[in-house]
Write a structure and sequence with these properties.
Blueprint: E1 20-21, E2 30-31, H1 49-78, E3 84-98, E4 103-116, E5 121-125, E6 130-135, E7 138-143, E8 148-150, E9 154-167, H2 170-182, E10 185-199, E11 202-203, E12 207-217, E13 228-238
Antiparallel strand pairs: 1-2, 3-4, 4-9, 5-8, 5-10, 6-7, 6-10, 10-11, 10-12, 12-13
């Protein structure tokens, strides 16, 4: 037994803090090798995409509400009403059917009424319009409408002189003769015109108004004034 300066027997060393079994020193050997550094635990952060989506939805709702409020104010302040169109009469200046070359030459004049019933909205009729008269799908004549501005609560009558020469088949000639004898001549009048609404001094976006009129007249003879027996109208707008 060893003595430490007369202070009593020495104490055994404390056991190692870290132990690890290794094959190098045997299965019962203890290697005093401390383990490696501690593994960093993964940190999970909250995804901020939910907040961004919420802001986008709120912004979209604000835009929709602003547009709805603008439309409601426009309807309340200006009280817009759709214009109306009609054909009051039609005259035949010339209508010749040539059996030799199977062509028809037609010169028709139609009175087109355009009514603007609005108190605060003007209508501008622009370039690029087209007016066509056809018989059972075959074009007879065509022309363009004049360019003009229609003021508030105004009715404008346009005298549109249409002219054209087009080919046809033998069946169409027989159909024309039968319709003339029966006194029921079906015609299709098609009008397409770009228009712009004007609110005060501000012009809105240009749109195209399409008018389809199914007419039935008693004759297309240039020797007499044809009478309009019936008329049906369809109007649609291309934005």
């Amino acid at each position: 037994m060893a003595y430490d300066g007369g202070s009593g027997p020495s104490k055994p060393p404390p056991p190692p803090r870290y132990v690890m079994l290794t094959e190098e020193y045997g299965s019962n050997s203890l290697a005093r090798v401390p383990p490696g550094g501690r593994r960093n635990m993964p940190r999970y952060h909250k995804d901020g995409g939910g907040g961004c989506l919420c802001w986008c939805c709120c912004f979209l709702l604000l835009v929709v509400a602003a547009v709805a409020a603008t439309v409601a104010y426009f309807v309340y302040a200006y009280r817009p009403r759709a214009p109306s169109y009609s054909v009051s009469d039609m005259s035949v200046a010339q209508f010749d059917v040539s059996a030799s070359d199977l062509t028809v030459y037609a010169k028709l004049v139609a009175s087109v009424h355009a009514e603007n019933p609005n108190d605060m909205i003007g209508i501008g009729y622009g370039t690029g319009s087209r007016t066509v008269v056809s018989y059972r799908g075959t074009t007879l004549c065509s022309e363009r409408l004049p360019v003009f501005y229609q003021g508030h609560r105004n009715t404008t009558v346009m005298r549109v002189a249409m002219e054209g020469r087009h080919g046809f088949g033998s069946r169409l000639q027989s159909a024309l003769e039968e319709s003339e004898k029966a006194g029921n001549m079906p015609l299709d009048l098609y009008v397409s015109v770009p228009v712009t609404l004007r609110l005060g001094d501000v012009d809105l976006r240009e749109v195209t108004v399409n008018v389809q009129c199914a007419l039935v007249v008693d004759s297309l003879s240039p020797k007499k004034q044809p009478a309009i027996k019936s008329a049906q109208y369809k109007v649609n707008v291309d934005f």
